[in-house]
């Protein structure tokens, strides 16, 4: 029978651990009451119910939280309803990065927050009910299982360097300053899956300096432009940051990185997570990571001028 991890066993939050599999679930039955689509107008446009005042970027507590106690936030990337991440340009993306870092620091400073998960679901194919560009944040009181797995058995520095090396066939893009790299993982589970990480280790979003943030902004704009160019339309994706826990431990092995899981395997064709995969916990990826990287590399991305002008 699967053991209940100590930090979850002591939590006042409604975790359940499946005794057969060890999988952790939150029962969030109240969320069934949330609207699929707002009845009138976009709640995230200026003047909408969640954003009464003009803004560039903006974070607020989710009205329909998956976890109680102000642990779920919505992060608006721009007041422009029709923008994409790449159309923000480097300057706009930099504001999003600053807000991610600020909210990580603010939530992480709470005594009852051990891990800040910054993430985004983009597109109706992955359940994003509102088209306005936005992401989310979950502030957990315990380190979630997937993040803990990576920390318990961390990849050595040399392995990170090799994975993202300039000579890697799976490298997709770097920023002009060479501070960040985006590559397709060796054992990618999703067809055009990406990892984005700094060349020099950084523990978390708040620890990024000015130059790190500017470089990351440029790379993210480039990478998300490539994903939308791949099949000539908005690529639905899930993305999430892994970073140092905020439980007060030193976590010297924690290394900031972004996972991006685009879900199309060809134009308008989602790659479904199927029974053979859920039943085995083994992924079956129809696109060779080297081919995926070559396809993404060959796309124009954004020119330096486009990135500068935003
Ligand atoms: Zn809107
Ligand atoms: Zn990770």
- Looking at the overall shape, the CATH architecture is 2-Layer Sandwich
Number of helices: 8
Estimated structural class: alpha+beta
* Helix proportion: 25-40%
Strand content: 15-25%
- CATH topology name, in short, is HIT family, subunit A
CATH class: Alpha Beta
> Total domains, how many?
1
SSE series = HEEEEHEEHHEEEHEEEEHHH
Report the CATH superfamily. Answer: HIT-like
Ligand list: zinc ion
Number of strands: 13
Secondary-structure blueprint of this entry?
Blueprint lengths: L5 H4 L5 E3 L6 E3 L31 E4 L10 E5 L12 H20 L6 E8 L11 E7 L4 H8 L4 H7 L7 E4 L5 E4 L10 E5 L11 H21 L6 E6 L14 E6 L1 E3 L2 E2 L4 H4 L10 H10 L5 H6 L1
Antiparallel strand pairs: 1-2, 3-4, 4-6, 5-6, 5-10, 7-8, 8-9, 9-11, 10-11, 12-13
Helix pairs in contact: 2-5
The chain binds zinc ion (2 copies).
One zinc ion (ZN) binds next to loops.
